[in-house]
Amino acid sequence: MFKFLKGVVVGSGAGIKDLPYNIGEPYSSAWGSWTHYRGTSKDDGSPVSIFSLSGSSSQDGHLIAGRNGIKRLRTVRHPNILSFLHSTESEVIDGSMTKHTIYIVTEPVMPLSEKIRELSLDGTQRDEYYAWGLHQITKAVSFLNNDCKLVHGNVCLASVVVTQTLDWKLHAFDVLSEFDGNNEASNSSMLQYEWLVGSQYKPMELVKSDWAMIRKSPPWAIDSWGLGCLIYELFSGMKLSKTEELRNTASIPKSLLPDYQRLLSSMPSRRLNPSKLIDNSEYFHNKLVETIQFMEILNLKDSVEKDTFFRKLPNLSEQLPRQIVLKKLLPLLASALEFGSAVALALTSFLKMGSWLPTEEFSVKALPTVVKLFASNDRAIRVSLLQHIDQFGESLTSQVVDEQIFPHVATGFSDTSAFLRELTLKSMLVLAPKLSQRTITTSLLKYLSKLQVDEEPAIRTNTTILLGNIASYLNEGTRKRVLINAFTVRALRDTFSPARAAGIMALCATSAYYDVTEIATRILPSIVVLTIDPDFDVRTKAFQAVDQFLQIAKQNHEKENTGDTSGGDSILPSMAANTGLLGWAMSSLTQKGKAAEHASLASVNASPSLVSTQSKSSAVMETQETGLAHSPSISSDLDQPIPSSPTSTDGWGELENGTLHDDRNNDQEGWDDMEPLEELNPSQLASIQAAQKRPMAPPKQQASHSSHPNNSTKASNASLSAPNTDDDDLWGSIAAPAPRTTSKPLNVKPTTYHKDDDLWDSITAPPPKTISKPSKPVTPADDDPWASIAAAPPTTKAKPLSMGRGRGTKQTAVRLGAQRIDRTSSSGM
């Protein structure tokens, strides 16, 4: 027998072997003879509470009452009654003594007295929290008395515990018994274990053991008295030592005092029913109680009530006790959002409450809910997530972003709503650094390629800005293939002036990624054209960019002259100014587009006083983005009828079969690989110098001036529309042509000038198109050595004046404005 017991138990305080929980440190207080321990599960380490009760024999009165409490706790289930998990009983032999111990395992709780000291609430917040706790205990007592016809028998401060979400729960069921009101004449004890209750908590009829009167009284008479004792101990901050102290009402709130006196009525039949206390007491009507009650029955509320509630919740949460908001309201909101009972407006309150948590707790308590919400098909929730992504984006791990978030967010790139496309684009500023190179190359850049030709000019501009900001996260090969083509071929040629300005700034901010050959042959020729741009801001930025890139070329020149081959191109000291440009681009992405929060700023951004303080392009950019992002209502903006698009489907524009469908040629919307520029060898340089010295023959016909540019233009257009069979090569369709070309050079006879010697013919700027008449005919000079690379004359439909009809070759003076023409018949001449 001894060996058997020794194999079952380990010893006092160490816990028994068959108990699947670890016993930790005890709390300083507990009800009756019980000891309350902290504990954890051996399976997953989750926290629990363990109560133990010991006796010298198995027939000890305390142990018998404890077994009654276990039976009652196991069978009675209510949200405000302590949840039972496990129980066991063991024997420990210590010398000649045998010690019997009962263990009860419950959800993790803390004694109410210790939790009150820990929270240290005062004033209105203390009263609101006490009101919520008393409301919960009163519901538990009402359930026992009115629904189950049971009598708890010892409601007091020690019989209340607090959960991790700060809910109050009733326990200590050792005295719990059925109410025997049918046998009123019987004088036998109705409460078998009433001797466990202290005399200070007993009403007068129980002190006298007047069981006949107790049976004639309502079922709630004894427990209503106990609620009065709990209220006194709660507000006085002292444990009740004798019944006479209940007359001291100085600490009782005035709104609760009438109900407190009715609970402690000397006549049992006149004591207040706990259910009436819940319904009629003025004390329970406060912001905290009403807020939590609304959240607990959220499924029963209609959409109008939900919208009204969640619009007020962000401001209301600041007025409530912070600990209760974080431990009670935040889990309720998370559950409501995950299961769809909360509207999108609730996400604003959820993220605001989550911002009050430490970083570690936010990652555990709030972030999993946010990740789940990205999979929601509710457009309004997705919009709210994207608008507030800067609040939680830093807490997301790279694996979560790459595998769980980006696949859902990417559907917004092809959405029919321009507002949603722009929000998705701006969110990449936070998400792109956490994406893998594979995802960036195979997915993100394809979406950005399409957005750079979007119908909305603000989206095209922000796409260029985003590419400049995420350039550092691209690998070297991708940067070579993407950046120059995206900035020079698309951004600098955009019809929207802020888009051109953004392209210039993006080039300057990413200047460290280009070698001198690319700067001289591709970047500078594209930027110089913009020095005569109609927009003042574009011209200003173009001149700054030209100076910057020329300085880089000059440094390279000086380095080669000195024979310094220590490294690549160095960053100029003046490049520090680019930080401001990049910062402007980043602020334009992160501070705009929050329609729900900054709708009132729409009129301010468009005011003349604000526009006058900014440059022209910045003002246009602000107006475009504000008009796109600041909508009066997200739902009204998204609910408008939108024409069908082949790239989108219902809901959130989900991609069909995981692929992107578009009627346009994919090659026309991508950035394919550019042909590598050939190095200029010494023989080619000698050919160029020789070509400059040999005499140039004039063209045979004036028509050659217009024929070659048109052919060149057609060839260029054909190159833009030529399909490419390589799906991964996104930039070839817009790549700059190679220096060598097979087309004939302009204004040069084939017999006197070889096409291979002209290295600039392929990149010669196309002639400007105009409808105005030239004031003077263009005649190439015979002795002009630059005639072969000179810009072609304007292409017009009208014939030059020198080739018109009339007497002699005298040129007619150009007249401006409309002219009157006198038409006469041949007979009148």
Describe the structure using short key phrases.
Leucine-rich Repeat Variant, 34 helices, disordered C terminus, HEAT_type_2, Phosphorylase Kinase, domain 1, 829 residues, disordered N terminus, five-stranded antiparallel β-sheet
Quick overview of this protein structure:
With 829 residues, this protein is an alpha+beta fold. Among the domains are: 16-108, Phosphorylase Kinase, domain 1 (2-Layer Sandwich), CATH 3.30.200.20; 112-285, Transferase(Phosphotransferase), domain 1 (Orthogonal Bundle); 288-504, Alpha Horseshoe (Leucine-rich Repeat Variant), CATH 1.25.10.10.
Task: Explain what the structure shows.
- By secondary structure, the chain is α+β, with helices and mostly antiparallel strands.
- Among the domains are: 16-108, Phosphorylase Kinase, domain 1 (2-Layer Sandwich), CATH 3.30.200.20; 112-285, Transferase(Phosphotransferase), domain 1, CATH 1.10.510; 288-504, Leucine-rich Repeat Variant (Alpha Horseshoe).
- It is built from 34 helices and ten strands.
- A five-stranded antiparallel sheet has the order 1-2-3-5-4. A three-stranded antiparallel sheet has the order 6-8-9.
- β1 and β2 form a beta hairpin.
- The N and C termini lie far apart (145 Å).
- Mean pLDDT is 75; it is low at 1-15, 567-669, 673-680, 695-729, 735-765, 768-791, 796-814 and 823-829.
